[in-house]
């Protein structure tokens, strides 16, 4: 098994004006692990601008990370939206916006394009809801929406969740099929590098259940500064224990370069 395995694009679907779902299929005999959940992470190597095939062999060089092999091909963190065919096919949802290696590629992606997938024999997820009856607070901007969508779709019967989601336009709302009881709050036109985020204020207004805090779990995925404000609120105001919430900064406003989280790239405000 190689460190970086090839995967070919099989379908490209525009879900909303700013989200594209790209399905990829494993080339060769490898497959993705099937035990993942929620915001399961996947690292992807992309074609260079103007090209259609990623240089995945670069990462399989025995000297990778030890010697100067020239300019490293572009790669980014993303979320596995759904796993099909025993791990042979994966859905990846991309936030599309002007600028950024991955976003530019997603806008021009076609069936037949070749990516590199950094293979792992086990899944990696921030989302770690406790077993048993639970009430969940799920918070995301567009970059966290793929993870939130999978979390909602995988809820069990009896799970109750409050989802707060920040998107650019009304048309960027999505619908999810779930066994859980989910209430949605959609924030339209705020945040996402174009205006101040309204996620923190929305979290402040949430009415948490009156049951013991052990029954509460919170998952947050959004811009880094906003995520820090929400984390502090959950801990210091709501009194939620550290092992009852996972708060992740998926990107950093005002910065260019590699994203620290998933599903988008760091972009300068107004880009």
Automatic annotation (TrEMBL):
Superkingdom to which the source organism belongs = Bacteria
| InterPro entries to which the protein is assigned, alphabetical | FAD-bd_FR_type, FNR_nucleotide-bd, Riboflavin_synthase-like_b-brl, SIP_FAD-bd, SIP_fam, SIP_rossman_dom
CDD domains named in the record: siderophore_interacting
PROSITE patterns reported for this sequence: FAD_FR
Q: Example GO molecular function term? A: oxidoreductase activity
Which parts of the sequence belong to the FAD-binding FR-type domain? Answer: 2-130
**What is this protein called in UniProt?**
FAD-binding FR-type domain-containing protein
